[in-house]
Write a structure and sequence with these properties.
This protein has helices spanning 7-11, 96-122, 125-136, 156-163, 167-179, 195-203, and strands at residues 14-18, 23-25, 33-38, 41-46, 52-58, 63-64, 77-80, 84-89, 142-144, 150-153, 183-186, 189-192. It is globular, with a radius of gyration of 18 Å. With 204 residues, it is of the alpha+beta class. The strands form three sheets. A four-stranded antiparallel β-sheet has the order 1-8-3-6. Strands 2-7-4-5 form a four-stranded antiparallel β-sheet. It folds into two domains: 7-119, Jelly Rolls (Sandwich); 123-203, Arc Repressor Mutant, subunit A (Orthogonal Bundle), CATH 1.10.10.10.
Length: 204
């Protein structure tokens, strides 16, 4: 995972806190790069019909707002999924070590984007849902359950946006995964009861 900025360049960064469901960035012009220090940020876009599609999640150590590096307009929203602490960083303050860390982040983000595109185009919905839940098990949305299992605080609407579907269809898939005993679903939360089974489903 990408580490935080260090040294004198790190001190030039500005720290901001955001409550859950707060929009951090809107589409438009850019001037700063952002790094998540705590919490979880969702990068998403909205189609012409008003449907949201999650592009990726940014966990602590990760960056967003990379458009500032090349001066192009941002075409997405960045939203705090949980309470977040985010640093805004002027590209002009980045040193060689900072740029190396950023390049590492960009490579990781690109690899995750490729995997997400592959899942959307070549995987059945059940596999996509399983993969998304596994990806969130180490995020700020997850807390340990009584038996050590990850419990993810996530609505079916948010899960649908993350896998490119609609709530009603995702609810059916959640029901199937529950009957498979891969997960246990409650109001606004999903417990990952059997991660090995979830991984098998995600890989299918």
């Amino acid at each position: 995972m990408v580490t935080k900025l260090e040294g004198s360049q790190r001190r030039l960064a500005n720290s901001h806190t955001f409550e859950a469901r707060t929009v951090i960035l809107y589409p438009g012009t850019v001037s700063h790069l952002y790094q998540v220090r705590a919490g979880l940020v969702r990068i998403h876009t909205v189609d012409d019909e008003g449907n949201a599609l999650t592009l990726r999640y940014v966990k602590p150590g990760g960056y967003f707002g990379e458009e500032a590096l090349i001066g192009v307009k941002r075409r997405y929203f960045a939203e705090a999924v949980t309470s977040c602490e985010v640093e805004s960083i002027s590209p002009a303050t980045l040193g060689s070590e900072d740029l190396a860390l950023l390049n590492h982040h960009l490579a990781e983000a690109m690899e995750k984007l490729y995997r997400s595109m592959f899942r959307l185009s070549g995987k059945r919905l059940k596999s996509r849902v399983a993969a998304e839940l596994l990806d969130l098990q180490d995020s700020a949305l997850a807390t340990p359950g009584p038996n050590g299992e990850a419990i993810i605080r996530l609505t079916h609407d948010d899960l649908a946006a993350a896998v490119g579907s609609v709530r009603e269809t995702v609810t059916k898939i959640v029901g199937e995964l529950t009957r498979d005993e891969a997960i246990h679903s409650g109001y606004g939360k999903i417990a990952l009861s059997n991660t090995k089974l979830l991984q098998d489903i995600a890989d299918a």
